[in-house]
Amino acid sequence: MSNTIQIAVRTLVEHVYSSGSIDSRFRSQSTMLDGTRIHQEIQHTYQEGDQKEVYLRIDLPYKDLLFTVDGRCDGLLVRDGEITIDEIKSTAQQLESFGEDGLPVHWAQAKMYAFIYAKDHQLQGIYVQLTYVQVESSEKRVLKKCFTIEELETFVNEVLENYYHYAKLLYDHRKERNESSRAVGFPFESYREGQRKLAAGVYKTISEEKSLFVKAPTGIGKTISTLFPAIKAFGEGHLNRIFYLTAKTITRSTAEEAVEKMRSCGLCVKSVTITAKDKVCFKDETKCQKDYCEFADGYYDRINGAILDIVANESTMNRETIEKYARKHTVCPFEFSIDLAYAADAVICDYNYIFDPRVSLKHLFDEQKKSTLLLVDEAHNLVDRGREMFSAPLNKDLFLQLKKEFKGVNKIIYERASKINSWFISLKKNVGELNEFTIEHLDEELVTLLTQFKEEAESLLLQETSAILLDLYFQVNAFLKIVDLLDEHYVIYGERNKNDITLKLFCIDPSKLLHKMGKAFRSKIFFSATLSPLPYYQDILGGQTDDYLLSIPSPFKEEQTDIFIKPLSTRYRDREKTQQKIVSMIHSLVQNRPGNYLIFFPSYKYLLAVYDQFIQDFPELHTLLQGAGMSEEEKEAFLEEFKPNQTETLIGFAVLGGVFSEGVDLKGDRLNGVVVIGVGLPQLCFERNLIKDHFNMKEKNGYDYAYVFPGMNKVLQAGGRLIRSEEDHGTIVLVDDRFLQRHYQELMPQEWRNFRVI
């Protein structure tokens, strides 16, 4: 039936019965691991004839909708002719916190399973059991009740009645969305060259449930070319949700504008933008605790009303709109945006919400993922971000600080911190004078000590707060989470910094875990102007051999850009020697070709050295300097200076790979030239050398994987700031003798290869 609403048992009952406050002072992903372990332990005690993880499904007509409700009950127990549905709930809290009768939401979940089973097997009555387990003490409490089929039927009707208004709102909207998506046309007069090919590739990938890696040139309009075919797939029944994933705020704005452009052409679609918690928090400190924050206190009692209100009245749920409704309903704006993600058609957010196992959207079930598309913008950024997500450090110094703070205050925490600090001292002795070193296997003793510390910290944090204990608790939790992922894709290494020592579980190759986190989704589109070479990105981002690869040539004419190579050495050892020549070259360039320029440097230190020399030699010229740690307002002010048709030359000095070298759109006369100093290689360091050695052992070019490909990616991104449309013209100067080497030239786009040497 076309009026079917598919929903998981847990999602349904949590919507109707969840209550209480947000309180994240001691929550962590370890709770989920404990929960899995405890479920397995309880299920292991089941008798012969009992069943575990039983899939149950039922169609429930209610008014004009048909609800298909399904899920897996933890246990189906058959004892002396009695049938019992067992629902296992593990908790870090003391069992008394659930009261004598347990929580209504837990009973609701178990009763829903009981109704489905009883209805399916024509039972007149059935038992329902809640098994509560305290994770630390393994204390267990079992609550059991018997329900008639009539009682369960009444209960189910009450649940559906409570959920119906929200379900009907979404159903009516999605019907309108699908009709409008079929009717909407491409929101511009015509396709740019290459856009139609990209849009067709994306649509084909979605319809065939594949993944696609796309290198599409800067300025082609990649955002609209990937979003438009995805929107059309709504109307064909292929998709129900799109995630547009970005690494930077500026590219999020581009996605919002593209969705708004299609809305102006008649598209009915609801979009949510998720902004980082620390940016949207209404309080002075980001402390999600009911006794500190009124937006956290009682959040779950008010959230359904807030969601109904905003979904009924708004289509664009961006930061500004979400904050307005969050204040109106007194709910946390960040958690509000996360909850809205499950109701939206398009979600614009950071990579983390899908790929990071510590923060990913947990309630997005596999069934929903099957009709969800991932659009991964500027996908080259996901390589290092993936490494970061799946890695975890641990610092000795924090345990020493904790030991000092808790001496004479809490004996158990003091002893736990002392033992871990002592373990680090032994490690320092074992590695001698080495400042950097690798470890073949993680010491089981450390894992045991950390697990014990985590359990004790958790108990104490239930009663009181301590900033350093809380920070260390989360760091240890994150570390233990990664311990479970260790395999041949990891290297364990240590670094000494004076008396401190850091141990890091370093995910050297994120491909396996990125693939795993994205596996259940219908399709994934990875796209960037600099996804080159494509086979490298397909490999490192977890692509499979049957994925599609698409490389779209630039639609812009070669004569739009003058490419020059200045063969000076920018290697670290030669920088002082060639500094004056670079200053002179920049001055000569702007004298002969006046306009607005961006000059990119491989490091901030190098940038400052040349900048200081330049303003000393040519104080009359108008220059801008990228500051360290610029605020959003300062970044916008920097870009605002690049005005069209200026009478005097403007030179912006910026960092290669920084905020101004990608995602910045300075069209027409706002930017007349780009100078890239160096080939962008990351600084030689221990971690990069580990990457190099790892891929060399895999019979791949480790130096390319660790240094050359990431470096040239930055160069291509910076150069891509220049030509943004068919009308743009300008100059690119590449300063380094290595640009004349064949290997580096093979990594340049075709339109850059007709260069002149100066």
Structure in words:
- The chain has 758 residues and is of the alpha/beta class.
- It has 4 domains: 4-163, Alpha-Beta Complex (Lambda Exonuclease, Chain A), CATH 3.90.320.10; 166-208 and 218-389 and 511-526, 3-Layer(aba) Sandwich (Rossmann fold); 392-507, Fumarase C, Chain B, domain 1 (Orthogonal Bundle); 558-757, Rossmann fold.
- The protein is 44% helix and 21% strand.
- It has an 8-stranded parallel beta sheet with strand order 10-9-11-8-12-17-7-18, sandwiched between helices.
- β21 (622-625), α23 and β22 (650-655) form a beta-alpha-beta unit.
- Mean pLDDT is 92; it is low at 25-33.
Could you give the topology of this structure?
Layout: E1 4-8, H1 9-17, H2 30-44, E2 51-62, E3 65-79, E4 82-91, H3 104-120, E5 125-134, E6 140-148, H4 149-183, H5 195-207, E7 211-215, H6 222-235, E8 241-246, H7 249-263, E9 271-273, H8 277-280, H9 299-313, E10 316-317, H10 319-329, H11 333-341, E11 346-350, H12 352-355, H13 366-369, E12 372-376, H14 382-389, E13 392-395, H15 396-406, H16 411-431, E14 436-439, H17 444-461, H18 467-483, E15 490-497, E16 500-507, H19 511-518, E17 523-528, H20 534-540, E18 548-551, E19 561-566, H21 575-592, E20 596-601, H22 604-617, E21 622-625, H23 632-640, E22 650-655, E23 673-677, H24 686-697, H25 702-719, E24 730-735, H26 742-746, E25 756-757
Parallel strand pairs: 1-3, 4-5, 7-17, 7-18, 8-11, 8-12, 9-10, 9-11, 12-17, 19-24, 19-25, 20-22, 20-23, 21-22, 23-24
Antiparallel strand pairs: 2-3, 3-4, 5-6, 13-16, 14-15, 15-16
